[in-house]
Backbone:
């Protein structure tokens, strides 16, 4: 077998199981529970089987020892303790490193797991506490409806069988093997029930065995022989189903098959059966894995379609034919709906980023002897895949700094009248066409006086500027390059080390970061990000003979100014915008464009956090959906330009990066 063809599937499934184990370990540490131990055991067992089949022995050895330790706990022979939990957390970190090595072309042998394996073996080799446990029955608990199906089938020559299928320990694709078993069964009869449920089997949410309640006119020997022919099936048991005590009528039934013909049904029977089949169909909604490159290709094709749509709209306006305008309007409505669908394909829940933080918070807090409770909300909020891939590291930095410099030590919190355990909230939510991510702690807040002193000492601001800045504006100085208020530099350091990198990264994604802080009460960072980076709404403006696009997400409003409205402050041109002096930026001067001077001109007011800038242009063309195209390596680094777009008449318009205007 060529295992390389399964590599992508192995990596995806491994990461899912590792994430599942991490989540369940945190639950086990907080509240325990036999069901949690069982979930961890299942994932570890599956990881062991997959890695062994793929030939990654170090991964298989580590998961084997972890599985053995968990088997003792789930069987009640040993009790879980903090040492075991710590060892499992370490094992998961090592597992992530090994899987990353495999993804980069290695064999997962880049991590020394000998100490971790020894720790598991030490736990396993300890004295066992023998506890007898009742064996769980796999007999199906059928209701009145299912019993009725079986009885009517027997009247037409069918027999009911309970089939138990055990897959090999080395099986790679459990769901695929289960599908092949069901495929064989469909040739011989009808599947009535499964244990676990069908959707759980499809998602590989079972150990290595499953049961099937089956109706057939074939003998048990024929059925057993047919299933045994499926590769990686280790054992098959086929027994006549003797029935079970009737359960309560309201128990839900997942029926995969219809009753074999001929069966006499009343209208009410058929109505009940149709309802149950509809419920089962809804519960078994199918999902498929799609290569991201295909989605990107689809997106690129659609972007070209959007450009051509713009050209068609322009031509229709020039022709002025009603029938053509009506057709173009229908196309526009259809493409708007298609655009939403295509963009949805690229959207992923931010949960994929958030899931890594609970274990990280636990580890960091433990290292620096603090108690921190992480509260996550809005993990289902969706973002463009491109943003998801890039936003993880900035959030990691903000969270680590919040724990290290924001939340106080337990004894300090008690003296301040706070609970020993600090609270760290991580939340995400939609707002318009943007996603907001907030990281809020109930710690000491940012020492604004200390920030001011450090900023003056390093020449970041002048004495005059310091007196004019608000507390939040002073606090934002922690985003200056290399700025830190930490008295002692540690591995985590103070809130501020590297935050210039965080800020630059977020802004490169079209986002904005801001903060609010209250001394003694805590700090809240807010990150605002666009939903997508490929197709955006923009305001088209004219400067001389050139057209530019300014993203609507950064525009506060547009206004008209007279020459007499321009003032001068600190040798800069400003204007009074609702009682606030806002600096003016002339695009014609910034890009060296010749244009006529008007006595009255449009100004686009853009914002970045709490700051405003007025962008002076010649004319406002209007709002339009545009496709962002990269400038290419030759034009990279041009100030205040983030990309380009193709307009309906075929001309290229540059996209203004409003963040660079401040």
Residues:
């Amino acid at each position: 077998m060529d295992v390389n063809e399964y590599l992508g599937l192995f990596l995806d499934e491994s990461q899912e199981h590792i994430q599942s184990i991490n989540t369940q370990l945190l639950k086990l540490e907080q509240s325990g529970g036999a069901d949690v131990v069982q979930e961890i055991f299942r994932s570890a067992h599956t990881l062991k089987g997959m890695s062994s089949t793929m030939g990654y022995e170090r991964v298989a050895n580590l998961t084997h020892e972890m599985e053995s330790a968990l088997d003792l706990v789930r069987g009640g022979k040993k009790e879980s303790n903090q040492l075991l939990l710590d060892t499992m957390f370490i094992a998961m970190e090592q597992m992530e490193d090994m899987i990353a090595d495999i993804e980069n072309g290695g064999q997962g042998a880049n991590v020394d797991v000998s100490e971790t394996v020894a720790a598991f073996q030490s736990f396993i080799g300890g004295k066992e506490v023998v506890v007898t446990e009742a064996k769980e029955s796999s007999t199906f608990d059928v209701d009145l409806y299912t019993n009725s199906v079986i009885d009517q089938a027997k009247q037409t020559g069918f027999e009911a069988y309970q089939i138990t299928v055990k897959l090999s320990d080395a099986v790679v694709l459990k769901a695929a093997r289960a599908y092949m078993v069901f495929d064989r069964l469909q040739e011989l009869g009808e599947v009535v029930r499964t244990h676990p449920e069908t959707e759980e089997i499809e998602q590989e949410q079972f150990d290595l065995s499953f049961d099937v309640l089956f109706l057939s006119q074939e003998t048990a020997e024929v059925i057993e022989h047919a299933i045994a022919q499926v590769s990686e099936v280790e054992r098959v048991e086929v027994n006549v189903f003797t029935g079970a005590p009737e359960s309560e009528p309201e128990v839900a039934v997942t029926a995969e098959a219809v009753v074999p013909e001929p069966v006499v049904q009343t209208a009410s029977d058929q109505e009940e059966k149709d309802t149950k089949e509809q419920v089962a169909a809804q519960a078994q909604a199918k999902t498929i894995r799609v290569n991201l490159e295909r989605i990107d290709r689809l997106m690129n094709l659609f972007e070209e379609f959007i450009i051509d749509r713009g050209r068609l709209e322009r031509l229709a306006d020039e022709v002025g034919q009603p029938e053509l305008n009506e057709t173009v309007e229908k196309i526009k409505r259809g493409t708007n709906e298609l655009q939403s669908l295509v963009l949805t394909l690229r959207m992923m829940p931010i949960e994929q980023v958030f899931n890594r933080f609970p274990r990280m918070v636990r580890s960091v807090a433990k290292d620096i002897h603090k108690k921190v409770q992480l509260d996550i909300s809005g993990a289902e909020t969706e973002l463009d895949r491109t943003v998801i891939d890039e936003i993880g590291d900035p959030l990691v930095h903000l969270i680590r700094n919040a724990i290290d410099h924001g939340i106080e030590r337990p004894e300090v919190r008690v003296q301040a009248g706070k609970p020993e355990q600090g609270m760290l909230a991580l939340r995400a939510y939609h707002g318009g066409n943007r996603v907001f991510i907030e990281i809020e702690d109930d710690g000491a807040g940012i020492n604004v006086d200390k920030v001011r002193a450090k900023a003056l000492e390093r020449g970041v601001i002048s004495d005059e500027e310091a007196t004019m800045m608000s507390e939040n504006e002073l606090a934002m100085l922690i985003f200056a390059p290399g700025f830190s208020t930490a008295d002692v530099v540690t591995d985590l350091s103070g809130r501020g080390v590297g935050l210039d990198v965080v800020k630059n990264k977020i802004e490169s994604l079209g986002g904005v970061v801001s903060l609010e802080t209250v001394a003694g009460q805590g700090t809240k960072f807010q990150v605002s990000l666009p939903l997508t980076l490929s197709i955006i709404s923009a305001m088209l403006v004219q400067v001389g003979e050139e057209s530019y696009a300014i993203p609507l997400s950064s525009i506060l409003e547009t206004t008209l100014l007279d020459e007499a409205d321009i003032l001068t402050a600190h040798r800069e041109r400003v204007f009074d915008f609702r009682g606030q002096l806002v600096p003016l930026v002339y695009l014609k001067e910034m890009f060296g464009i010749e244009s006529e001077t008007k006595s009255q001109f449009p100004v686009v007011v853009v914002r970045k956090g709490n700051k405003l800038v007025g962008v002076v242009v010649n004319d406002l063309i209007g709002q339009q959906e545009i496709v962002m195209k990269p400038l290419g390596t030759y034009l990279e680094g041009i100030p205040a330009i983030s990309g380009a777009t193709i307009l309906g008449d075929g001309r290229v318009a540059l996209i203004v990066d409003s963040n660079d205007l401040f």
